[in-house]
Amino acid sequence: MPATSTLSSPDVAAPADLRDDFLKTLRCMIVSRILEEKLGSLYRAGGRIVGGVYLGRGQEAFSAAAGNNLRYGKDIYGPLIRDQAGRIAYGEPLLDAMRTYLGVVTGPMRGRDGNIHRGRPREGLMAMISHLGSLLSVVSGALFARRLRGTLGDTVGATSIGDGGTSTGAFHEGLNMAAVEKLPLIISVANNQFAYSTPTARQYACEDLVDRARGYGVDGHSVDGTDLLACVATFRTAFARARAGHGPQMVVGKLLRLGGHGEHDDASYIPDSAKHKHEARDCIEVAKQQALEFGWATETDFRTWEEEARREVDAAQAIASKEPTPDPYRETWHALSTSGLVEGQHG
Fold first, then answer.
1. Burial of 91 (0-12, 13-18, 19+ CB in 10 A)
2. Helices 134-149 and 169-180 meet at what angle, rounded to 10?
3. Least CB-packed of 222, 232, 241, 265 within 10 Å?
4. CATH number at residue 194
């Protein structure tokens, strides 16, 4: 199957049928930004969050537009470290994020793992794996298992990776398998210009990262990752093709990571010149301007959504901050198996 490259950057009046998805996705982006600002503040204050904090500032449009096409409990999602917006759009509760970052036993990982390493596999949400590229095989394997059981139906899977992660052997092996089996899989590649501190010029030699899709025989779509309208339209097309049996779809979003690799990183290696390029636009501000231009929302709407998001985030923090962390004297787990470990149970 030949790869196709499509650059979606609408410059004209937006199609009315994108309005609802656009606004839903924008609200998820706002919630994600406010949640992550809270997590960053807690990290800098010290004392409660153990480990790193990894934020998706600047990638919310690309992430949420993908998550909005997935059905919680039905489809399979393997998010990466900057996919808080996608998680929210997919349906992950804010409490799952807050509880995991605060390390309490009521979270999905029971306080045994932190930050972005969380998931609910029974619901289709896979926990993020630090070995980049590995999630592609995990999500592909879950789809293949459903096919073998005869329960695949119209299920699709989606996973995310960065520009640097596409250079790993695990990425190659996973995508090759998915392509050969023509699995209904969407691979979101956030080309945020830096793999930690390594620029894309030292990462790949092809003219455009989407060109790699052709080598695997899958469809490739390139989109302005700062443009929410373009992201919504492009992911809608990609998901529709995957559900229709056209095999894996690689969607490459061009953007800039608006911060360090994590909150511990000052990103001093990013040159000032990069911060003034088109890819450095704040996708939330771009989306707000689009919504105003199309008459889909007002400044009052934005303020209302932000206030609602802050209340939701504050409520999640208030609940999680009062809950206990694991008691080492009551734990019975070890590396290979854990007696009585049932998702959602603790104590």
1. middle
2. 20
3. 265
4. 3.40.50.970
Distance CA 342, CA 333 (A): 12
Report the amino acid identity of residue 217: G
Q: What is the pTM of this model?
A: 0.90
Q: Is residue 115 part of a domain?
A: yes
Strands across the sheet with 76-78, in order?
7-8, 219-224, 249-254, 185-191, 157-162, 76-78
- Which residue segment(s) compose the domain that 314 sits in? 7-320
For residue 33, being part of any structural domain is answered with yes
Nearest of 145, 114, 111, 146 to residue 127 by alpha carbon: 114
Could you tell me how many residues make up the chain?
347
Q: How many CB atoms lie within 10 A of CB 293?
A: 10
Q: Write the pLDDT tens digit of every residue in 37-70.
A: 999 999 899 878 888 888 989 999 999 999 999 9
Tell me whether residue 332 is in a domain.
no
Number of domains in the chain: 1
User: Which residue's entry shows tokens 């398998």?
Assistant: 177
